Amino acid sequence: MLNQDLGKLILRIIGGGFMLTHGIPKLMKLINGDLGFADPLGIGMTPSLILTVFAEFLCALLILVGFKSKWATIPLMITMLVAAFVVHGSDPWNKKELALLYFAVYLAIYTFGSGKYSLDNILNKRS
Question: How far apart are the C-alpha atoms of 103 and 96, rounded to whole Å?
Answer without folding.
Answer: 11
